[in-house]
Design goal:
The chain has 75 residues and is of the alpha+beta class. It has one domain: Signal recognition particle alu RNA binding heterodimer, srp9/1, CATH 3.30.720. The chain has two helices and three strands; from the N terminus they run H-E-E-E-H. A three-stranded antiparallel beta sheet has the order 1-2-3, with helices on one face. Strand 1 and strand 2 form a beta hairpin. Helix 1 crosses helix 2. It is globular and about 35 Å long. The model has no long low-confidence stretch (mean pLDDT 91).
Length: 75
């Protein structure tokens, strides 16, 4: 299983607490998980090759939901 690095975890926690929403963007060679918020430019949370992206995205989403639940009491 791929693990998330400390900088990625920090970004996830920060943007989840601020109410940003995660979105996946798929390219030919690589994929991105970005955070979006109304009126803001999307911020890249993680970038990976297509091959590893599904597993990384899943781990990131679990962490995103945990962070939101800690702040808002719900996901």
């Amino acid at each position: 299983m791929e693990s998330l690095t400390r900088p990625v975890l920090d970004r996830i926690r920060r943007y989840a607490k601020e109410g940003w929403e995660p979105h996946a963007r798929y390219g030919h060679d690589s994929c991105l998980l970005v955070a979006v918020a109304n009126g803001q430019i999307p911020v890249v949370i993680l970038r990976s090759a297509r091959k590893e992206f599904s597993e990384l995205r899943s781990a990131a989403m679990v962490e995103w939901l945990r962070a939101r639940k800690r702040v808002f009491g719900r996901a």
